[in-house]
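Hi F.,

I've been meaning to write this up properly since the lab meeting, where we talked about keeping a consistent format for the predictions we share between groups. The idea is simple: the sequence comes first, exactly as it goes in, then the structure tokens exactly as they come out, then a line or two of notes. No screenshots and no reformatting. I'm using this chain as the first example so we have something concrete to point to.
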Amino acid sequence: MKEIEIDGIKYVPEGTQSKAEQVDGLDYVIVRTYSAGVFAGYLKEREGKEGVVLNARRLWYWSGANSLSELSQQGVTNPDDCKFPQEVPSVTLTEIIEILPCSQKAKDSIAGVAVWKQ
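Output, unedited:
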């Protein structure tokens, strides 16, 4: 993939970001639910509106992305202003209304946000 580095930051042409690496063949995704909020992690299984996400992190508040669509591809540009609590081994989500595949850039960005604590 072509990239350029400016002041220590690597940039790649829009639309060329690679898909996030998989864990045991599972895709890294952002899942939005009707009432439980938004989670990022590896989608293990899904049946209808219910699914299981591994290594799940709730995305309680983000800064530096205008929408979940942008977050899933570009990540966040203001990681210090984000509120992402600790990752949990798994979560069963009901009432899933949206699943977005993440780019590697977005996955790395989400993982790079410090754990939010009160």
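Notes:
The beta strands are 4-6, 9-11, 28-33, 38-47, 50-58, 88-93, 96-101.
Residues 18-111 form a domain with the SH3 type barrels. fold (CATH 2.30.30.100).

If this format works for you, I'll send the rest the same way.

G.
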